[in-house]
Design a protein that fits this description.
With 348 residues, the protein is mainly β. It contains two helices and 22 strands.
Length: 348
């Protein structure tokens, strides 16, 4: 069925409550110019194992940011499709899932549990008047006549499912869908000059991303329903083994005409040769180019020349995905407009 009202909430964080109890959620009180909201972030799973997978990226760079920064405050409904600002942990090449780690929500000591990992950036966002918080997930409310049970504002109103929303099991399969994953992003604008004694400091712009998933979820899902695929059985989630073949570079903005001159460079990390004939390169619009006649020896690299009829690499940022003959993602990267310099090859 997928999420009923998927989108992104943008606003100013003014308060928070750390997750506790039998079904803990980290709660954030967010406001826009006229409305109060609550962000409810799962920090513990109801299914075993109970520890959530988490990843914090404190220098997040991705083409989705270029549009996010121009959003109005408040909730914006998003179409669950590529290039619509929606998130998809598998198809959006947001991060390497092997970097995610399980973490309990509450451990004695400082900065060592999931509540504290999230709290560090929420507290900073509360203290910075210029900071914005972006929460991706499912909207609820407004609940007319009801106060919010945590922060007391009326009517109750907010967003939840701030986590991966595909590849589920059991009763949560009903929430499966593609291009509807949750996430928590923090934008801290740069400061050109700050007087510090007799000198000055420059604080660069910073985007921080927090991504969460349940250990019961799967990283191979149907491209239409988001349901887990048979390949999930017996697979460690998230995958621990590096993909045998990876994208290591791309020329996305060649000098002169782009079509027919864009390239993607692959490397074989495995100790055996890999025949890539029948594999695919896919762009952000899900256009495909088939790889033909490429056999990579161990440690060898190969360059795929895109003819302009299939995958095309935009100059304003994009994603590049490597698929095997069954259509399963083997590796993926993203790049921003700033990286797409004319004539320069991007190294991933």
């Amino acid at each position: 069925m997928a999420l009923k009202q998927y989108g992104v909430l943008k606003g100013k964080a003014i308060n928070k409550i750390v997750g506790q109890g039998s079904s803990p959620h980290y709660e954030v009180h967010l406001i826009d110019d006229t409305t109060d909201y609550r962000i409810a972030v799962n920090v513990k799973s109801n299914l075993a194992p109970s520890e959530l997978l988490y990843l914090v990226i404190d220098d997040f760079q991705h083409p989705v940011l270029a549009n996010l920064v121009h959003l109005d405050k408040g909730f914006t409904a998003l179409q669950s499709a590529p290039n619509k600002m929606a998130l998809d942990f598998i198809r959006g090449n947001l991060f390497d899932p092997r970097q995610m780690r399980p973490l309990p929500h509450n451990i004695p000591g400082p900065d060592n549990d999931l509540n504290e990992k999230i709290d560090a950036y929420v507290q900073r966002a509360i203290g910075d008047e210029r900071a914005s918080v972006y929460a991706f997930g499912e909207r609820w409310g407004p609940e007319n006549g009801l106060k919010d049970k945590y922060f007391g504002f009326q009517p109750g109103n907010g967003i939840h499912d701030i986590h991966m929303n595909q590849g589920n099991v059991g009763e949560f399969v009903k929430d499966d869908g593609v291009w509807q994953d949750g996430g928590l992003l923090f934008h801290f604008p740069g400061i050109d000059k700050v007087n510090v004694g007799v000198g000055a400091e420059i604080w660069p712009e910073q985007w921080v991303a927090v991504f969460l998933a349940f250990q019961s979820q799967c990283w191979h899902t149907d491209d239409h329903t988001g349901h887990r695929l048979p390949q999930c059985e017996g697979v460690i989630i998230p995958p621990e083994k590096e993909p045998n073949v990876q994208i290591i570079a791309a020329l996305v903005n060649p000098e002169g005409e782009d079509p027919g001159h864009e390239t993607v460079t692959l490397i074989n990390l495995a100790p055996q040769p890999v025949n890539l004939s029948g594999w695919f390169i896919m762009d952000k619009n899900k256009n495909y180019s088939i790889i033909t006649g490429m056999l990579l020896k161990p440690g060898a690299t190969g360059v795929v020349n895109l003819d302009g009829q299939g995958a095309q690499l935009g100059n304003n940022g994009g994603i590049i995905t490597l698929l095997d003959p069954e259509g399963l993602k083997q590796h993926g990267v993203s790049y921003t407009k700033e990286q797409a310099l004319s004539g320069w090859t991007i190294l991933f």
